[in-house]
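Hey, resending since the last one bounced:
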Amino acid sequence: MEGAAAPSVDAAKEQAKKIRRAERLVAQGDEAAGQLKFDAAASRYRAALKIYEQNLAALEDPAPLVEVRLKLATALFRTDMEEEGERRLAEVVALAPEIELDPARYPPLFLRTFEGIRDKLLRLPRGAISVLSTPPGAAVYLDGRKVAETPALLTEVVRGPHYIRVEAAGVPPHVTRVDVDPKEVARVEAQLGGALSGEAAPLVAALAENEVDGKVVKALATLAKRAGAEFVVFGSIRKGEDVYDVKSFLYSRKSRKIAALTDIAFDFDLLGASIEVYKLAGEVAEAVQAFPSPLIVPAPIFPGVRAQKAKLTEVVAGPPVPRGPVAGASPAGAAPPPASAAAPAAPSGPVQPASGGPAEPVARGPVAPAAGGPVQPAAREPLTTSRGGPVAPVPATGGSAAAGPVRPARPV
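The structure tokens again:
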């Protein structure tokens, strides 16, 4: 899966400007929500989310992606757009399954709706993400939490959107969004630098599997188009018992076909290598004039040689499955609640996604009422970024939510 490309210095500055633009949009949404203009607020929050997702490499922590979704959900429930509101709440759960909403800011109906969505989503079948990198050994962050090093297979990942960040010292990170589906394993391949990076990296990675297949053809088509070339010569080399065996191929951009060229071999001292390469160059010159019989794809490069697959370290990266009966949201079609149960305005306090730490999140404790006072949320650690720093609080909206009916959420 493709991710955010490593930005140049100028590109990084441009991305930083766009992130500041998204932050201004969030502030404008908060202001509109404070004035009870929830349609305008939802529009600002959607625009901010879009900018964030287009500039993931500039976000060191995914907290803003969680916060803006929660703000958007609150606005949607006030504009009779419950279906999208429920979907946004489900995305919040996928990204931050241990998040706690402040009862002082949200009415009971909204809290029950959120808890019902969370409980049901966490019980559904989950998916997995394989994460590879060149070179291997890079740190893997899932939604801001460091969970593994490459190569890794992240299992028990809650279905829905997630953000993978792959980091290695001295090179820009690889950041991408992954939409997890339990029916298939999502793949992330990060090119972080070294000999296998650059425009030819996808081709080199495909050839490393010792097979000319559809991935090789796709990589060749991209490479030829970028270079403006009609033909591409490529190949693979392996060390035999006493020689280097070289397999060479010719790709035609026009026909999207591949032809095998004559095999050659060099001794370990490379004596006679220049002669063999000269012969190969002559064969290529003839082949571009009269393209040889195409290779039937897929085909092995070195028959009888098995490619060494990267051994993935399996890591359970999702939260525990809830125990006990399902916490259901109010069924669709139920009578609307009284005006006092109106949906909240955009929250003024920070949302609390799972803090950086081990893949297995900390279980939530019971909610206990304080003596002689309102119910208090279970104690939690303060929200921190994946680098250990604090997350800035969400701005206050500066207004109160107007009374009005809220349609109960449909079950997820």
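The helical segments are 9-34, 38-54, 63-77, 82-95, 108-123, 201-207, 214-227, 273-289.

Sorry for the duplicate.
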